[in-house]
Hints:
Layout: H1 8-19, E1 33-42, E2 45-54, E3 60-68, H2 80-93, E4 100-103, H3 116-124, E5 128-132, E6 150-155, E7 158-164, E8 173-179, H4 183-192, H5 201-215
Helix pairs in contact: 2-3
Amino acid sequence: xxxxxxxxxxxxxxxxxxxxxxxxxxxxxxxxxxxxxxxxxxxxxxxxxxxxxxxxxxxxxxxxxxxxxxxxxxxxxxxxxxxxxxxxxxxxxxxxxxxxxxxxxxxxxxxxxxxxxxxxxxxxxxxxxxxxxxxxxxxxxxxxxxxxxxxxxxxxxxxxxxxxxxxxxxxxxxxxxxxxxxxxxxxxxxxxxxxxxxxxxxxxxxxxxxxxxxxxxxxxxxxxxxxxxxxx
Length: 232
């Protein structure tokens, strides 16, 4: 069983070790399935979900959910340590192994270049990237108004992601590579996965699954009590 950090100091040391295993590489040449991963909160409880979609038609191929509690206190920059154990448990329950993981969060667009998508990618050794709703680090020039327009996300002189317009004249998203994935591939896949809405269908499906879990009687959730996630 994997030993999980108990203090910020232990988490920082673990993050540094895992970051050394991060691989920057082009995304897979062939992709059959993609998985969205998300977590919702209800007080001190969480619902984690992984939903696997067919990359060709975006139909659901598999879903796994886990009800649990955060595995680590809330510490900015160490948010992945709260969610990764539950997400790994959900991944292990899948019957369809995804080709790519797409996290509702960030990859290398992180203060220490190791956000949730990078963390999960290294632990599973699956290609992974993040699509965040909000910026965690970096600055960027104004993004064009048309779908597909993008602007580099720059932090400390380094390109850590892209600010990508997935819908014309709609607020952009923040895409960053994680493990075994480059930024161009991540942006291309994000556009493929956003045929109608701002967020990827992977994220939308996983968000519904984890929220539904917390709102079922077994999840003991109550409508209107689900909390947003913090910073990844």
